[in-house]
């Protein structure tokens, strides 16, 4: 951990937490390096060591922020979860998600009665952090389960909700708007879930992923009413969400993902305002698909740019085109395409690859009256993906690429 990597243990007569910041270079020799060299070392540290390093001074704090400002794709993920009524925050590297560092909040009473073998106790802001004795003198606890390694620290606090928000906001600050994932078992009402909903309102994150085993309607409604996500919101469930939810009222800019969503109605899709919308395992049928595509062909402009829908029935592209699907021509000759025709401009057959799967896709492009381009792709018997390309988009570029699948 931090002291093992770059902290010189001071003499017994010196308390490192009372040394003025300008003298702490004597304790942290890494700070003697050139800033570029220090940044290179930081790049190969785990998220916990980076967080620890950020506590040293404003200068070290800035080095961490600069690192993630220059390489946003490597930001760690911040997880908020609850075991019973005990809140927990963890951080993990995107490229190694099965190794995480967890911060478990508890009351100060536990500090006195349940932690007799504490080696040190330090105060960071108003949060008490304990480091337990271990063979490596590194972590509170360490466990490996299902190929997952978890390192744990216990932070003692009198107000877990407040301090969880403080910690999450600090992690988002030093890691420059890191993603926040929230894990809840919504089928089991308990105070831990209530706390998590309060964290979500207090932590000003742009992206939230709620993962649940059994959906609870009251919790789901509270999520929709109080969530603070401005860019992305995902609601993932292992079981069906049955009752109707007001997803049309959500104000999420970039992406809305609702998994296992038979409650979704066609009229809600017409009112959604988000760049990308993904709706899986819905109860929508082919007649809804036909209605949606016909309105788009006629010129209706939705509040979203992309829509991915998993229908309950099989859907056919033949139901929304004027003639049977034709072979894709290569190369494409735009002179042969009548852009002003009310009919479909171009049809295609293609194979679309993802990291894990390959789909045979059929679809069409249509240049609409306002100059925008409608692309409808049927990926499997009951899955459709719809794009609205804005006016001014390169027609040849769109017609040459049916698009990628995104979930």
Task: Describe the model.
Among the domains are: about 1-70, no CATH class; about 245-400, no CATH class. Helix content is about 25%, strand content about 30%. It is built from 11 helices and 17 strands. The protein is globular, with a radius of gyration of 26 Å. The model is unreliable at about 1-25 and about 110-140 (pLDDT under 50).
Give me the secondary-structure category: alpha/beta
Q: What does the average pLDDT come to?
A: 73
**Span from first to last CA?**
36 Å
Largest sheet: 17 strands, mixed
The percentage helix is: 25-40%
Query: What is the strand tally?
Result: 17
Q: Tell me what portion of residues adopts beta-strand conformation.
A: 25-35%
Choose one word for the global shape: globular
What would you report as the Rg, rounded to the nearest angstrom? 26 Å
State the helix count: 11
Unreliable spans = 1-26, 108-142
Query: SSE order, as H and E?
Result: HHHHEEEHEEEEHEHEHEEHEHEEEEEH
Give a topology summary.
Blueprint: H1 2-6, H2 35-43, H3 47-54, H4 58-70, E1 77-83, E2 86-93, E3 96-106, H5 108-113, E4 118-124, E5 127-132, E6 141-145, E7 148-156, H6 160-174, E8 179-183, H7 191-202, E9 207-212, H8 217-226, E10 232-237, E11 255-258, H9 266-271, E12 276-279, H10 286-297, E13 306-310, E14 346-353, E15 358-367, E16 373-380, E17 383-389, H11 395-400
Parallel strand pairs: 1-8, 3-7, 8-9, 9-10, 10-11, 11-12, 12-13
Antiparallel strand pairs: 1-2, 2-3, 4-5, 5-7, 6-7, 13-17, 14-15, 15-16, 16-17
Helix pairs in contact: 3-4, 6-7, 7-8
């Amino acid at each position: 951990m931090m002291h093992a990597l770059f902290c010189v243990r001071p003499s017994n007569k010196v308390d490192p937490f009372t040394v003025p910041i300008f003298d702490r270079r004597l304790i942290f020799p890494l700070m003697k390096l050139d800033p570029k060299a220090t940044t290179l070392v930081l790049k190969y540290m785990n998220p916990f060591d980076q967080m620890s390093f950020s506590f040293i001074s404003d200068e070290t704090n800035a080095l961490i922020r600069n690192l993630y400002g220059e390489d946003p794709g490597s930001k760690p993920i911040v997880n908020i979860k609850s075991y019973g009524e005990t809140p927990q925050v963890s951080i993990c590297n995107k490229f190694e998600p099965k190794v995480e560092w967890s911060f478990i909040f508890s009351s100060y009473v536990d500090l006195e009665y349940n932690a007799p073998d504490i080696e040190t106790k330090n105060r960071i802001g108003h949060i008490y952090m304990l480091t337990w004795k271990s063979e490596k003198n590194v972590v509170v606890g360490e466990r490996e389960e299902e190929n997952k390694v978890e390192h744990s620290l216990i932070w003692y606090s009198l107000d877990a909700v407040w301090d969880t928000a403080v910690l999450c906001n600090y992690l988002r600050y030093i890691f420059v708007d890191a993603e926040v994932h929230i894990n809840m078992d919504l089928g089991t009402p308990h105070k831990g879930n209530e706390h998590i909903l309060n964290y979500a309102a207090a932590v000003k994150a742009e992206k939230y992923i709620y993962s649940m085993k059994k959906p609870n309607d009251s919790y789901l409604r509270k999520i929709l009413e109080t969530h603070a996500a401005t860019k992305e919101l995902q609601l993932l469930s292992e079981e069906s969400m049955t009752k109707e939810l007001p997803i049309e009222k959500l104000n999420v800019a970039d992406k809305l993902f609702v998994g296992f969503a038979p409650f979704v109605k066609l009229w809600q899709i017409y009112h959604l305002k988000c760049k990308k919308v993904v709706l899986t395992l819905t109860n929508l049928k082919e007649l809804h698909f036909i209605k949606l595509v016909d309105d788009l062909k006629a010129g209706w402009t939705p509040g979203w740019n992309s829509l991915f829908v998993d229908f309950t029935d099989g859907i056919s592209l033949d139901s929304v085109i004027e003639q049977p699907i034709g072979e894709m021509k290569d190369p494409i000759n735009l002179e042969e395409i009548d852009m002003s025709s009310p009919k479909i401009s171009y049809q295609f057959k293609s194979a679309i690859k993802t990291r894990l799967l390959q789909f045979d896709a059929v679809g069409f492009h249509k240049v609409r009256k306002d100059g925008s381009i409608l692309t409808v792709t049927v990926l499997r018997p009951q899955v459709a993906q719809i794009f609205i390309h804005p006016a001014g988009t390169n027609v040849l570029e769109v017609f040459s690429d049916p698009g990628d699948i995104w979930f």
